[in-house]
Design a protein that fits this description.
Among the domains are: about 60-65 and about 85-165, no CATH class; about 245-255 and about 270-385, no CATH class; about 435-479, no CATH class. The protein is about 35% helix and about 25% strand. The protein has helices spanning about 15-30, 70-85, 105-120, 130-140, 140-145, 170-180, 225-235, 305-315, 315-330, 330-340, 345-355, 415-430, 435-445, 470-479, and strands at about 5-10, 35, 95, 100-105, 130, 155-160, 165, 185-190, 200, 205-210, 215-220, 240-245, 250-255, 260-265, 275-280, 280-290, 295, 370, 375-385, 390, 395, 400-405. Strands 1, 2, 8, 9, 10, 11, 21 and 22 form an eight-stranded mixed beta sheet that branches. A four-stranded mixed beta sheet has the order 5-6-4-14. Strands 17-12-19-20 form a four-stranded antiparallel beta sheet. Strand 10 and strand 11 (about 215-220) form a beta hairpin. About 45% of the residues are buried. It binds flavin-adenine dinucleotide. Flavin-adenine dinucleotide (FAD) binds near residues 15, 18, 169 and 411.
């Protein structure tokens, strides 16, 4: 019998990234012994917690800071996630249909959205250009002026009303873990309340140490948010990265919006534009935000993560230079100061009200309340060699069986796409097989020609497998 603490693949962190990888490797590979280690008592207690993010399934159509390439990449990732969610028996707790739009206010933003519509239209069949009267039908509060009547300035929006646009990433993480544990023919171990302190390597194994146990594994994928970088540093990787944690806060109002309303992003500040969203777990309210405040911690409201922050910051001349470059940009400087003010109790509501009124002009001071203990932290990386802040997800794939993921927004949306990448990389490293055909049918909505597609390892012969109850259910759905 194999030693229970020895694994083919160990995953650290059971947020939506780690749990998606647990699911994909358990379902689509022949890797026999997989484990996941989480420091809290349940999956998704940090950024994937439903209250800590905006719950948006990003498709790239209402995110004006995305290039077309990036938008289409995110669209593919979102499609994969929606396919998974919609095929689950508890789909109504995972994914939600709301209208969505990005709102342009003033001539410049309206012109920008009209041009963007022309660019995106061929790729987004559901996307509509919404004039003021169309917006009024979907979101009456957006077109209503402060003193009643229609707001005067030009507005236009891009949006759709018939798509799934919100995901409970916390429920999704639980679903992934549950489904992975049901996989037949392999051992899937899930450990909670185990904080991994240190990683080292020895011969062809990694040694993964918590306070009480030392696990051994042939392959290792760390999906621990900002902590991933600290664990990468343990093995000597990613030393050219530093981590800048950007916290997001939110405000609740009574329900003034029916769906998601985004605003046009500032290119220099991709995470800056606030939006208004329904909260899938707080009916009858609209949640506005997030703000963006740099904080010296890796987990929101957890000041015990300060030492870990100092370890991943690795402050030196190059970090100082990168921060200085950021601060030299007037928009960024103003934005940082504004976001500090957003956290000061007596004035924050007044300041935030001005921002939120871009979306709902008639919003009143007394309707706004700071959402306590809501909002997570985006672990944005600084590339010290290039002296710049990296936007989006970052991955260190060592090519030697260890991968480290740092996932700011839209990391929830891209969890499955990212997991599939890591699954292929790990399978290649272990010499394991990936069932590409099953993956294509179930998640990508297509069946690859034999020998086609970007896959690693051997391809399993799927025709030999008797159709599972699950497969038959999916077939019925497709029909
Ligand atoms: C304000 C805000 C808004 C966002 N909005 C969106 C959005 O609308 N749509 C979207 O797609 N994305 C959004 N995101 C991004 C998304 O929330 C994250 O990308 C995603 O949740 C990251 O998942 P993860 O599993 O990588 O990290 P996390 O959810 O943070 O999970 C990491 C896990 O690792 C565990 N861990 C850490 N260290 C250790 C250790 N040493 N040992 C064991 N376990 C450890 C933690 O306990 C945690 O469970 C938002 C993020 C923020 C902060």
């Amino acid at each position: 019998m194999s030693n229970p603490q020895q694994y083919d693949l160990l995953i650290i962190g059971a947020g939506v990234s780690g749990s998606a990888l647990l699911y994909t490797t358990a379902r689509y590979t022949d890797i026999g012994h997989i484990g996941i280690i989480e420091k809290y008592a349940a999956p998704a207690r940090v950024n994937s917690l439903s209250s800590n993010n905006s719950q948006t399934l990003h498709c790239g159509d209402i995110e004006t800071n995305y290039t077309l390439d990036k938008a289409l990449k995110v669209q593919r990732a979102a499609r994969m996630l929606a396919t998974y969610c919609l095929s689950q028996p508890d789909r109504d707790h995972l994914i939600y249909p709301y209208s969505k739009m990005v709102l342009g206010v003033g001539e410049r933003e309206c012109a920008l959205l009209r041009a963007r519509f022309r660019e995106l239209q061929p790729h987004y069949p559901h996307l509509r250009l919404l004039e003021k009267k169309d917006i009024a039908r979907i979101e009456p509060a957006v077109v209503t002026a402060r003193r009643g009547g229609l707001r005067a300035e030009p507005i236009v929006a891009l949006g759709s009303i018939d798509e799934h646009t919100a995901v409970n990433f916390e429920a999704l993480s639980r679903s992934f873990v549950r489904r992975a544990a049901q996989s037949e023919g392999k051992t899937v171990d899930v450990f909670y309340n185990e904080n991994i302190r240190h990683i080292s390597s020895e011969a062809d194994r990694f040694l993964v140490a918590s306070d009480t146990t030392c696990y051994q594994t042939r392959a290792l994928v760390v999906c621990a948010g900002g902590h991933s970088l600290k664990l990468a540093h343990d093995l000597g990787y990613g030393r050219h990265y530093s981590c800048l944690p950007v916290a997001g806060s939110y405000y609740f109002t009574p329900q003034v919006l029916n769906g998601k309303v985004y605003t046009v992003q500032n290119d220099k500040l991709p995470f800056a534009a606030i939006h208004g969203d329904p909260d899938v777990l707080v009916p009858g309210k609209t949640r506005f935000g997030p703000t963006a405040l740099i904080l010296p911690i890796l987990e929101r409201y957890n000041y015990r993560t300060l030492p870990d922050f100092l370890r991943v910051l690795q402050f030196d001349r190059r970090v100082a230079a990168a921060l200085w470059e950021l601060l030299r940009v007037r928009d960024i400087r103003h934005y940082m100061v504004k976001n500090i003010l957003f956290e000061i109790p007596l004035i924050r509501k007044l300041l935030f009200l001005r921002e939120a009124r871009k979306i709902v002009p008639a919003l009143r001071y007394r309707e706004l309340s700071f959402a306590k203990r809501v909002g997570g932290i985006r672990p944005q990386l600084i590339d010290k060699t290039q002296g710049r802040l990296l936007m989006g997800e970052a991955k260190i794939d060592t090519g030697r069986g260890a991968i480290f993921n740092m996932t700011p927004s839209p990391g929830g949306t891209s969890c499955l796409e990212n997991a599939v990448l890591d699954m292929r990389s790990v399978a290649r490293f272990l010499g394991a097989a990936v069932d590409e055909q099953r993956l294509a049918q179930e998640l990508l909505g297509e069946a690859p020609e034999p020998g086609q597609g970007e896959f690693a390892g051997r391809m399993l012969d799927d025709t030999a497998r008797p159709a599972s109850r699950w497969r038959r259910f999916l077939d019925r759905l497709q029909r």
